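Input record (one chain):
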Amino acid sequence: MNRGGSVPDGEELISVPVRDERDVFAMRKLGRDVAEAVGLETQDQIRMATALSEIGREVLGETTETFATFLLGQDSLVVRIGLPEQAAVQTADGVTLAGRLVDAIELSPARGTISMLKRLPPGRPRPSVEEIRARLAKLTPTTALDELRQQNHELAATLEEVIQLNAELQETNQGVLALYNQLSEELEETNRGVVALYAELDEKSAQLREASTAKDRFWATVSHELRTPLNSIIGLVRLLVGPGGEPLADEQLHQIQLIGSSAETLLNLVSELLDMAKAQAGRLDPQPSQVDLVALAERLRMSLRPTGGNRVRLTTRIAHDAREMLVDETMLTRVLRNLLSNALKFTEEGEVTLDVSFDAATHEVVLLVTDTGIGVPEEHQERVFEEFYQVPGPIQVRTKGTGLGLPYARRLAEAMGGTLRLSSVAGAGTTVTLRLPSRDDAMPSVGRVLVADDDAEFRATVRRMLSGVAAHVDEAADGLVALETMAANPPDIALVDLLMPRLDGGALLQRMARDERLRRVPVVVVTAAGSHQYPQEASAVVPKQGLRRDSLLAALRRALEQAEAR
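The corresponding structure, as predicted from the sequence alone:
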């Protein structure tokens, strides 16, 4: 048995015989006196005396005579009590209790001893071994009655301390309970405030959605209604100044031409507003066709005149592998016209360049509009894509503008499945990068594609990515609508989100597997979940986060190839 670590040896202070109960009382008294002499605290003196008393009673039950030897170690008091080899005190209650009162207790069969150790308080001066022995030699013998009285005194003192500690504990408990009640009340009040705040936020969110819907409806309605009278004004102006009309004085002709120019400017602005409203609602549907980018760039170069006169050059460079692309020509023309007009407007000297190239790594056509103009300060480079925002400055004051050019261009770029980014250094020019997906000739055309996803914006994005690839794109907001749509018009391939209301993607695939008409339809899972979590019925999977056109088309190709191989 070894509790608390090994018990070392030390210099002997005193040794006493233990033959009967009176010797146990004497050993207890001596243990307290030795503990006091070596510098232990009062409570540690009592613990050592009590431990000796417990061990003494156990020893008396095993043998008729033994010795208790007190030793002073380097930093501890050691008491070693002899036992015969046949002694069996390891599991005795007295030994267990004594082990709780001292720092270490050890039974050594080789020595035939049981040893106890109590560590001395560090940093406190203590007398030498000779001084302790001399002090112990002066002690007078004590009777069992005296020792019993001392024990009672110690018990009474300990009881007093327990009573005091209990009172302090009760007081602490009352304080803790009061604090708990206070915190509970504050927490309940905070929770009520949070609930009220969430309700207010929900209400504000609903109001914002209503306001946004009303704004979009206002833009769409007013823009549409304005087009008719503007077209009438422009038509009447053309009749007045065109051939066959009555002759006009020079001033009259000038004023009518101003009316026509203003009406055309206003019509362009109304068209931009209408397209912005459509783009925000996800209703811009590109109509791709094969476009000659060389001819398009030349038309733009001829129609746009640098505002800086001979001090500004407008040049275009088209790479050989980017001379043609499948894209909505009207949308692309509007984007490039906006970008080039902006570049020319804010370049007083130098060059504006349109560079077109093909990025084979991403299968994208890259169109760069670069100028040597005034540039855009870093703190304004994101805000220029906000509707009606204009960077403050002297040139902005002199030039006309609504702050819709770049936001409108970005909306159109996104509608075509591309991206629009701006980089600039104030005073050193600006570069706007337009990236548009190029149709992969190796990608087979698809007759009908079903996109099943509860996110309307994501469905619109996929529809744009499939421009030029799919002849028809059907949409479904949940699994049940998807089943109904496929029952009416079975698709050539389906893109299915796993997390949908009413009937999720996994259940939808199981229903398709049981349907004779739909079981052979290849399915591409498009989901935010990990790729290892899609059902076995799926032919391919692509992540929804950061979905690119090239990765989507590659997944479609794999799914169609698997379907043909079956």
